[in-house]
């Protein structure tokens, strides 16, 4: 396999020396050097290392590894693989063009306040096109779910996404969902495949109707603490010991639904007594 280093800064030349391993020592194929009186260096090798068939692939610890935009490493070539492994963990090299750090900032482009630290990124042939194809497949799958949904079902999905389009034209509802699917198809697919969708909707509606309140950063129902987030509330609702509280919250959130269910039962009882 071959990898190519790309850079937004086309004319710049980069100089690397082999990096140390996680233990602070040279990597196994990177060897210490000594200098002669003319300042020339040579690798210091033990007898076993000199007789090692792989010694032709060793690199000196003071080696100047020069990289420019478009430099390619053939990882099937042991020597080139060693050169790559000696520099790949440099903070100047990002795994991909759009890689982000732990704070969510782009490693190359940074954020609105500063540029990123990296100036090079790894370009693996076919990788970007594969990602593009996979995303298109996910978008198509998400669109299929949206197309097969009912009008009320689509409105529910919008509500779960924080968008109330109850009085909007059906085309606006679909357009909104299609747009969201293009941005984050996995999120839309999860709305249709996750078994917790009904409980997620209950969380939204119970908060909206004031049945569940937020006090001191926690969602509460009466004296019962449900959790700090919607996910925590869902976990609370799914716990068998909390079924009675769940039923009360459902009753208060959807009184019209509960009345509709109870009315026939009362009528049947009255008929029996007669």
Order of helices and strands: EEEEEHEEEHEEHHHHHEEEHHH
Structural class: alpha+beta
Mean pLDDT across residues: 89
Q: Characterize the largest beta sheet: strand count, sense, and whether it forms a barrel.
A: 4 strands, mixed
Strand elements, count: 13
Rg is 31 Å
Treating each run of at least 4 consecutive H or I residues as one helix, how many helices? 10
Strand content: 15-25%
Shape: elongated
Proportion of residues in helical segments = 40-55%
Total domain count? 3
User: How many angstroms does the end-to-end distance come to?
Assistant: 84 Å
What assembly state would you assign to the polypeptide chains in this entry?
A: single chain
Give unreliable regions as ranges: 263-274
Strand order of the largest sheet: 8-1-10-9
Structure, explained:
It is built from 10 helices and 13 strands. By secondary structure, the protein is an alpha+beta fold. The protein has 3 domains: 2-125, no CATH class; 127-194, no CATH class; 196-274, Rec A Protein, domain 2. A 4-stranded mixed beta sheet has the order 8-1-10-9, with helices on one face. A hairpin with a 5-residue loop joins strand 4 (33-35) and strand 5. Helix 3 crosses helix 6. The longest helix is centred in the middle third of the chain and has 22 residues, at 127-148. The termini are far apart.
């Amino acid at each position: 396999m071959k990898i190519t280093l790309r850079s937004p800064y086309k004319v710049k030349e980069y100089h690397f020396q082999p990096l140390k391993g996680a233990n602070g020592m040279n990597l196994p194929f990177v060897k210490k050097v000594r200098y002669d009186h003319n300042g020339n260096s040579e690798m210091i090798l033990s007898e076993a290392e000199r007789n090692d068939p792989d010694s032709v692939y060793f690199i000196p610890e003071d080696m100047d590894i020069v990289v420019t935009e478009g430099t390619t490493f053939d990882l099937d070539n042991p020597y080139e693989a060693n050169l790559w492994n000696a520099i790949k963990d440099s903070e100047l090299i990002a795994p991909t063009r759009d890689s982000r750090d732990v704070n969510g900032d782009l490693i190359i482009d940074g954020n609105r306040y500063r540029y990123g630290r990296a100036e090079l990124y790894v370009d693996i042939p076919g990788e970007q096109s594969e990602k593009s194809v996979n995303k298109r497949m996910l978008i198509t799958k998400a669109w299929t779910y949206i197309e097969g949904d009912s009008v009320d079902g689509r409105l529910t999905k919008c509500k779960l996404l924080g968008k109330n389009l109850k009085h909007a034209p059906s085309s606006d509802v679909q357009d909104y969902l299609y747009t969201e699917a293009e941005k984050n198809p996995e999120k839309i697919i999860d709305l249709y495949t996750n078994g917790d969708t009904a409980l997620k909707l209950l969380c939204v509606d119970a908060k909206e109707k004031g049945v569940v309140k937020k006090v001191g950063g926690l969602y509460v129902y009466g004296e019962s603490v449900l959790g700090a987030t919607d996910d925590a509330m869902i976990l609370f609702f799914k716990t068998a010991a909390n079924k009675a509280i769940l039923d009360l919250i459902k009753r208060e959130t959807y009184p019209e639904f509960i009345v509709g269910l109870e009315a026939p039962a009362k009528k049947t009882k009255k008929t029996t007594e007669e």
